[in-house]
Amino acid sequence: MEAIVSRGGASGADRDGMELSRDGLLRWVGLRLGAGVLLGGVCGCSEPAPAPVRAGPAQHLLLVVVDTLRADHVGVLGAARDTTPQLDALAERGVVFSQAIAPSPWTRPSMGTLMTGRLPLALGLTDHNFRNPQTDGDVLPQSALTLAEVLGSADFATSGVVANINVEPVFGFDQGFADYVSVPAEMASDPAWRERNDWLRDTSSRVTTRARDWLADFAATNSVDDRAFLYVHYLDPHDPYTPAAKFDALFDADRSSGNPWAEDERLYDAEIRQIDAEVGRLLDGLDDAGIADDTLVVIVSDHGEEFGDHGGTRHGHSVYDELLRVPWIMAGPGVARERRRDQVGLIDVMPTVLDALDIAAPTGLRGTSQLALTPTTRATRSSVSAEHASAAVFSESAYVPLNALRAPPWKLIVDTETNAASLFNLARDPREHDDVAAHHPHVVQRLLERWRDERATSERNRLPSDATSTGLSSAQREQLEALGYIGDDHAR
Predict the structure, then answer these.
(1) Is the Cβ–Cβ distance between 421 and 437 less than 8 Å?
(2) What SS3 class is residue 77?
(3) What are phi and psi of 210, to 5 degrees?
(4) Where are the domains of the chain?
(5) Is the domain defined by 393-460 classed in CATH 3.40.50.300?
(6) What predicted TM-score, i.e. pTM, was given to this entire model?
(7) CATH architecture, domain defined by 12-383
(8) Predicted local distance difference test score (pLDDT) of residue 299
(9) Which secondary-structure segment (H or E) carries 480?
(10) For residue range 239-264, what is the model confidence (pLDDT) as tens digits?
């Protein structure tokens, strides 16, 4: 029988030697009794006790990815504008991870990690060939065991409704889903949508409608004991920033800042507010289906967005926090109401979700269930984070030769071509403008060793894939071009 990870997850040393086994898990995955509960303070500091928790486990899962949403543009995480009233309301009845870190500054590698609990390097998602994608480097390998496959094997009804081509079936992200809808593909086939040129820039309401339709159908055709997993991926607020008029009118640009990207940032915030309204409609769909009280709702993003923070714009081109720090909000049965300030990663989402659903986790997950951590455990992780195998978060970019190891208060950025290293003290310099590597050579050396170990572990456990090309349709190429992935400036 396959090994099953305990509720607390495997230690770093144990995880390094583990391999996912698709066949073994699909034969032996089972339900466990009793969901974990989030408790206590973070960062080793004293905080109010969490609010009482509704008994778990959750029966259903709604996973919502809001593309390109940087953490500090979410209201509960410090946004300057009133961008996310719906997300803020959800946060009031759940847990907010204020230091959630993405494994990559662009969609495909981050989503690979989110859906498998493995780092991009271990998945082989290390390239960005948009004109002629290769299965080795660009496509999620079939040998990867996905969240949808795990839940499907536990008799969940599974559905995905997506609006970003980077998670379409051509790139392998439909693995495990019984139903998987690409809204841009649907709209592209409709001459009326193409005539209005809305099929790329007006996907959000269609995504919500298709997701609500699936929820209604599930409620109408299944018994009260059946379980559901719905994954919804909104493209906005990805550029180009084109909010609807009523949202465009909500915010004024902050021209006093002198930031040449102030107008882009205003439009970005308006799109966030528009997507927030769609998330509200989606949550209403849970109520209409009669399953809201039994559903674990998880809201995350795949990466952030830059507006001149380090002289650039958009995403994919750096590993600074404006591109890596993302929201993670979670509410539902078994989840305490609290604000978490300890560092977590998108790599922790899969084990945490499985824990909340009372589903046995497969072996080989590199993340840790956040429901399993007590206040003492979290304080210990924080105090030794530079050395702790699971406290540091590793990120990488396929666009530029940059890796990051974030082990608060330190963050190391490494140029993988030259091995040049920069070091930032996030407690004193959260915007990462003061490189202190020369002043802390021992810290740099320690983190470099950790970085090398992490890369070696991922390389050693890299999943096999077929080295062949995968074809894109003309509509898919058109979408990639419109989103800036194909063209002279394609570092998004």
Answers:
(1) yes
(2) helix
(3) -65, -40
(4) 12-383, 393-460
(5) no
(6) 0.83
(7) 3-Layer(aba) Sandwich (3.40)
(8) 98
(9) helix 474-482
(10) 889 899 999 999 987 766 677 888 89
